[in-house]
Design brief:
Length: 300
Amino acid sequence: MKMLLAALVATTALSGTAMAEGITGFNIGLLGGENAQDRMTSNECLRNYAEETLGVPVKLFAPADYDGVIQGLLGGTIDMAWLGASAYAKVYLTDPEAVDVALVKTNLDGSFTYHSIGFARKDKGVTSLADMKGKVFAFGDPNSTSGYLIPSVEIPEAIGATMENGDYFGEVKFVGGHEQTIVAVANGDVDAGVTWADGQGNWEDGYNSGALRKAVDAGLVDMNDVVEIWKSKPIPEGPVVLRRALPQDVKDKMIDLVKGMHAKDADCAYGIAAGETAGFTPITHDYYGSIIAVRQQQAN
């Protein structure tokens, strides 16, 4: 979704709800990770609640890549999104005034972190990064924190080589997103891949939350058929952000809605948060300083 979205036409307030002042519609961007239809389905309940809360039409947008959401926030055509930390860093480094950090997904133990997980099919005979020499390693999106940024820093340190094709791995391949990575590994199209998970709970469930959990729920992978070959250090969970130019009452209403979703509708919260979580908790920009620094360093 790199093209600008047309401004929504003003409509009458939805029945039984007071229209939020200063806006005629509200757009929610859905970062890549699974196919567009599944992203839309998982967040349809949020769209409905947001319409009810704001009293204006609410639309979901699921661009093909992370940059579609990033550019939508920067261009003012997307009002809210749950970003990865690296995607937020790109927004902030491009325009520090574009968005405000609001909330963060919270794990069942109260932490705000997750992990990049390297994994392979058991029948590939790959159990560690040492077994990946000369093989094909799949990554999701260049703007993904767990799908590329963190692995691109930590994996070279672990293997003593670069991520350049042929230096250690036979090929480093971008496949488009977390779901695509999981499917590519499960189908045997690549030797291994990286995706994200909270690292809590049971491996066979795809952990408690994350892309593996969503893939298990969707029947895309049987975790008994795959093995973990690498796990990153804890990564700061990405923030829910809102466009700074929005009226304050709109931002407050949406923050309250998402923050209260776990108590209001547990099934909706499960879909939004990609699994079992303790919901969303307030967070500030300062939490992302380390990721912003890594992203800035890579850009130089």
